[in-house]
Amino acid sequence: MTDLYRRLGELLVQRCDVQPGDLSPETTFERLGLSSMDLVTLAMAFERELGVEVDEDDFPPDWTLVEAARHLEKRVAERPNPLERT
């Protein structure tokens, strides 16, 4: 699994009161029963850690944790490099 997948699991356990045994790559956000506040908390944590804009819409209820991690990886890869000149 990727680092972002692992970090997603850690944040879900630490900040959203999810039990580690409830997590698997195919677990959906809907199955976890997260509130909109949980999703905002998760988005804010990733925004701070990754340096990209993230909001609760980046975690659709029917997405699996693997899908969300891939989406976040793509967002990070697409962020502009502050050292590049335009």
Short description:
The protein is mainly α and 86 residues long. The protein contains four helices and no strands.
Indicate the overall shape: globular
Distance between the termini: 35 Å
CATH superfamily: ACP-like
Q: Uncertain segments of ≥5 residues (pLDDT<50)?
A: none
CATH topology name: Non-ribosomal Peptide Synthetase Peptidyl Carrier Protein, Chain A
Can you tell me the CATH class? Mainly Alpha
What is the tally of helical segments?
A: 4
According to DSSP, the number of beta strands is 0
For the biggest sheet, the summary is: none
Rg, Cα atoms, Å: 13 Å
* Class by alpha and beta content: mainly alpha
Taking all residues together, what is the mean pLDDT? 91
Q: In percent, how helical is the residue content?
A: 40-55%
Organism: Glycomyces paridis
Keywords: Phosphopantetheine, Phosphoprotein
InterPro entries: ACP-like_sf, PP-bd_ACP, Ppantetheine_attach_site
Pfam families: PP-binding (PF00550)
